[in-house]
Amino acid sequence: MTHHNNLTPPRGTVWLVADTHFGHAGAIAHTDRPFRDVAEMDRLLIEAWNALVRPGDTVVHLGDFEWGHTPARAAEIFAALKGHKHLIVGNHDRARVTSLPWESVQERLTVHAEGRRIVCDHYPMRAWPGSFRGALHVHGHTHGSLPGTSQSCDVGVDGWGYAPARVTEVIARMAATPEQPEERRRARERHEEADTE
């Protein structure tokens, strides 16, 4: 596992996803997911993923892929999912997940797509590399409980119809959000205060 790398996908669509929690009954209860049980959740998450992602596409999974299945079942689910898959390790991702044949496994990844620099981490950041130069930040972990900003967004399945999010749609959602990241907002406020003195 590496700490931080850059990725420029060679072709195809780039998808971002987090918090699938395959096999995790607690995710159904704690986040009010509309599934009867783990079997239904797993089946519908796989179907939703494969309805969007093509075999040549790139998928960056921002952690909490699976929790509760056997290593064999986790491998079956992984194999059933289309795309070239990269993992950003989440707090629920153990060896049975990190040892799957991902294209890469790391703690943080910067994706260069659609002319943008996108810093991917399982956890939301208040400040991230390049934020003052327009870099975007995507994360998981919060299951849609934190509001996004003009430069940051939760890409967990709970906020995206239980499916991966196309990178262009994520960028558009951020662009439509007026709230600036805290670090930028505070810098602007300090600058405005200095101008009034």
TrEMBL record:
Gene3D superfamilies: 3.60.21.10. Residues 181-197 have a biased composition (Basic and acidic residues). Residues 14-144 form the Calcineurin-like phosphoesterase domain. Pfam families: Metallophos_2 (PF12850). Residues 175-197 are annotated as: Disordered. InterPro entries: Calcineurin-like_PHP_lpxH, Metallo-depent_PP-like. SUPFAM superfamilies: Metallo-dependent phosphatases. Belongs to the metallophosphoesterase superfamily. YfcE family. This is Calcineurin-like phosphoesterase domain-containing protein. The lineage of its organism: Bacteria, Pseudomonadati, Pseudomonadota, Alphaproteobacteria, Hyphomicrobiales.
